[in-house]
Every structure is written in C-alpha cells, then in structure tokens.
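F.,

This is the one I mentioned.
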C-alpha cells in the first residue's frame, strides 16, 4: 500500500496568500491613517499657536517672548514658578537658529513662558525663567519660535516644528501651501539625523524638493505667522 502524502492544495495556498495580502494592506493603511492624524494635529497646533500669539499681541500690545513688560506683569504668575522674563521689545521674537527648540534664556524660550503665564497655552511655567519647556509635536519633538530675517521672509514670529519625516513634511506643505520646502508660507530646512536639531541649511533654494532619506530622516518645518 502506498503512503498517502498530505499537503496544501493550490486553493488553500491562494486563500492564505489573499489573507496575508489583506493583513499587510490593513497594516499599511493603518500606518497611513496614523501619519495623516499627526499631520492634521500639526496643522491644528500651528493654527492654535498662531491664534495664541495674535491674542497675546492684541491683549498686551506686544509679542510673547519679546514683551518688555512681562517681568513687571508676572512677578510670580503661577505657583512654583519664577518671575517671568522680559524681552527686549523690538517687535520680533529673537532667537538664533540653535536656540529655536531649546527653551533657553532667549525670546524663543520666553515666548512659551509668556503664553503660559497669560493662559493662552496650557501648562505651568517652569521653576527656571531661563529654561522653559517648548510644546511637544505629535512626532515627539518640539515646537519653537525664531526670529525673522530677510532670508526667512516669514514674518515677525515664525513657528517651527522640529523633526518631521520628509514625506509627512511634504504632505503638510501641500495641504497648507505649495509643497516646496524653499518657497511659500511653509518652509523646511535641510534634513538632519538628530531629533530637535537646529534648522539646517536655511533657507533652501526655491527649486529644492523634499528628499526621503533614511540616513537623515528629519526636517524642520516652519510656518509664517
């Protein structure tokens, strides 16, 4: 008597392959939905931060971070926090590129302090007037402010979003602007391999495009206020 060998039929194999394909498609679609939700949150955050800056400016006749009267206004505005630190009152949120995301002793850091003290951004001031934690992005990086320069051409207080994957940055740019990192009201610096790195190679050429490169997986995106 011959031994009967059992195995999968072609139909069974085809069914398994279809199931695997459906599972992979679901995973990819799920990741796409997650990425889109992060992009939408950045857009909402950009809009909310912009509204907070304009409201502060309307209420106090100064920019957050640059407010010359902040120290006198908030001597101990929030329990446990040190007094607010005043800006220089030159109508620009001034910070070097290297300081945009570090929340240090500069107007980019003071901006978060003033917005929190005024209640326009949630969260308490820190215990140190020279170390104010920036707001976090959905990409587990920081938002920041920086000074406008002729090279930026992005107004008095552009908002920066650190460490955005280039593909997401391009989609964000296309939804809000022209999809080009070197032109329009949304700009992006050259890619970096470091989280919360200072905006690099800024500004990019008008002909630049977003490059998806695993060796340098992050770009800094900036929006004009």
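My design for it:
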């Amino acid at each position: 008597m011959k031994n009967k060998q059992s195995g999968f039929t072609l139909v069974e194999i085809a069914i398994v392959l279809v199931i695997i394909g459906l599972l992979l498609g679901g995973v990819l679609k799920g990741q796409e939905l997650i990425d889109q939700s992060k992009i939408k949150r950045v857009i909402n955050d950009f809009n909310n931060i912009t509204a907070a800056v304009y409201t502060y400016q309307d209420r106090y006749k100064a920019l957050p971070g640059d407010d010359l009267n902040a120290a006198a206004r908030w001597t101990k505005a929030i329990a446990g926090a040190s007094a607010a630190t005043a800006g220089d009152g030159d109508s620009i949120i001034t910070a070097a590129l290297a300081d945009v995301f570090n929340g240090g002793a500069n107007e980019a850091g003071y901006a978060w302090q003033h917005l929190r003290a005024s209640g326009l951004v949630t969260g308490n001031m820190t215990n140190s007037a020279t170390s104010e934690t920036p707001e976090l992005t959905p990409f587990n990086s920081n938002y920041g402010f920086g000074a406008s320069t002729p090279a930026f051409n992005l107004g008095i207080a552009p908002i920066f979003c650190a460490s955005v994957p280039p593909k997401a940055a391009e989609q964000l740019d296309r939804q809000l602007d022209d999809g080009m990192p070197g032109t329009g009201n949304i700009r992006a610096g050259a890619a970096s391999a470091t989280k919360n790195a200072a905006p690099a190679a800024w500004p990019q050429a008008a002909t630049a495009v977003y490059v998806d490169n695993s060796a340098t997986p992050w770009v800094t995106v900036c929006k004009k206020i």
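The radius of gyration is 23 Å.

Talk soon.
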